[in-house]
């Protein structure tokens, strides 16, 4: 039976908007993680069959096929192909699923799944500039408006809807956010991210250079009082900048190989991809789909949530992992054990393989076996992947 193995999993430390990674072009940011993933696995760069890269804002510096440009900027030879994909926040998790599918089908043996997003240099909404000569000048077409009249598809509103539906008040959301910062702080201070982070050279602000090794978004001094003082995004709402994911610059990469490649190239597996799925649901509340996708993924894998040792559920907004916990009955002590996107940042197209890098290394560090990763995606989509640590 064909198997798909992860042999390296890396990410950059996150950069805040306008922060330490602002000087890095996203193509070079992505190329740095491609290089690191290949070098750490110890595989011949020319042996790669494909590079699949997630990116949400595919315009400006991330336009004109950012995946191919990143390959050309990397140590890989020109003979290695690439493709850029967009499944919104799950883009690089979908890249990883496509890589696994290619390996399991027997059509390819070594595939790099990756993602990049410089939210400083290519801001959210950059792809929403349309030709003014045409109406309605919006991604929402007349047919779509007929099916969902007067409804603006909004992740912010989806987060508010989840909070209302599941009964999460502002205090509960802020308490969750504070815990995310606490866990990220503890993980950073303990060196838990050391094996997954790719050092990047940055300016030290004094004319010299330094290594960027620490996620810039972590608030090491976060407090309940500080979170409570933030304004909600809408007057009668519960979502604030403090209990939502941080805008972030970053890139990540996961190298997936077949059993044949594992032997032929003398590679060491970090994990085996056990199962995966993707589902679609309500595009209005939209961010709730990981709950139901997890149900399907566990059923397909013939597993229960109690058999999963660690979970990575993307903290796009605090109500999402909280609703996921309540729906699945999962153990909160196994969820996002090193903090999540509220503290570490959510570099959109890079978050899928970023979370997988953290999950794989966390499983191995704790001597645990199974990990599950899922994230909500625009349009009411969700990917789920279950891996087994080697």
TrEMBL record:
Chain ranges of the Thiolase N-terminal domain: 5-258
UniProt family annotation: Belongs to the thiolase-like superfamily. Thiolase family.
Source organism, top-level taxon: Bacteria
Segments traversing the membrane: none
InterPro entries, per database record: Thiolase (IPR002155), Thiolase-like (IPR016039), Thiolase_C (IPR020617), Thiolase_CS (IPR020613), Thiolase_N (IPR020616)
Protein name listed in UniProt: Acetyl-CoA C-acetyltransferase
Gene Ontology molecular functions: acetyl-CoA C-acetyltransferase activity
Domain Thiolase C-terminal: 267-388
Name of a matching Pfam family: Thiolase_N
Entry coiled-coil feature ranges: none
EC number: 2.3.1.9
Top-level EC class: transferase
Active site: 89 (acyl-thioester intermediate), 346 (proton acceptor), 376 (proton acceptor)
């Amino acid at each position: 039976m064909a198997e798909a193995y992860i042999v390296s999993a890396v990410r950059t430390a996150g950069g805040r908007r306008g922060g330490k990674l602002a000087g890095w072009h996203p193509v070079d940011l992505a190329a740095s993680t491609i290089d690191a993933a290949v070098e750490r696995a110890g595989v011949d760069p020319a042996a790669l069959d494909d590079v699949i890269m997630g990116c949400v804002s595919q315009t400006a510096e991330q336009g004109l096929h950012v995946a191919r440009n990143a390959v050309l900027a990397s140590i890989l030879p020109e003979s290695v192909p690439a493709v850029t994909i967009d499944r919104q926040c799950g883009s690089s998790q979908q890249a990883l699923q496509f890589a696994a599918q290619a390996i399991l089908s027997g059509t390819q043996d070594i595939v790099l799944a990756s993602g990049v997003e410089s939210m400083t240099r290519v801001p959210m909404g950059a792809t929403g500039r349309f030709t003014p000569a045409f109406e309605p000048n919006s991604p929402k077409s007349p047919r779509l408006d007929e099916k969902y009249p007067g409804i603006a598809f909004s992740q912010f509103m989806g987060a508010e809807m989840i909070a209302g539906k599941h009964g999460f008040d502002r205090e509960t959301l802020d308490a969750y956010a504070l815990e995310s910062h606490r866990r990220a702080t503890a993980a950073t201070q303990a060196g838990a991210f050391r094996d997954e982070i790719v050092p990047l050279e940055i300016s030290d602000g004094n004319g010299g250079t330094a290594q960027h090794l620490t996620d810039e978004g972590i608030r090491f001094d976060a407090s309940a009082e500080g979170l409570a003082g933030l304004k909600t995004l809408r007057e009668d709402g519960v979502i604030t900048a403090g209990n939502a994911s941080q805008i972030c610059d970053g890139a990540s990469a996961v190298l997936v190989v077949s059993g044949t490649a594992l032997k032929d190239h003398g590679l060491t597996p970090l994990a085996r991809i056990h199962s995966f799925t993707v589902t679609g649901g309500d595009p209005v509340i939209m961010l709730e789909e990981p709950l139901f996708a997890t149900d399907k993924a566990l059923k397909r894998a013939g597993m229960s949530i109690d058999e999963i040792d660690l979970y990575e559920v993307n903290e796009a907004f605090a109500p999402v992992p909280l609703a996921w916990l309540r729906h699945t009955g999962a153990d909160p002590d196994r969820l996002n054990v090193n903090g999540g996107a509220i503290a570490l940042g959510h570099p959109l197209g890079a978050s899928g393989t970023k979370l997988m890098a953290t999950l794989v290394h966390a499983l191995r560090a704790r001597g645990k076996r199974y990990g599950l990763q899922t994230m909500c995606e625009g349009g009411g989509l969700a990917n789920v992947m279950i891996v087994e640590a080697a």
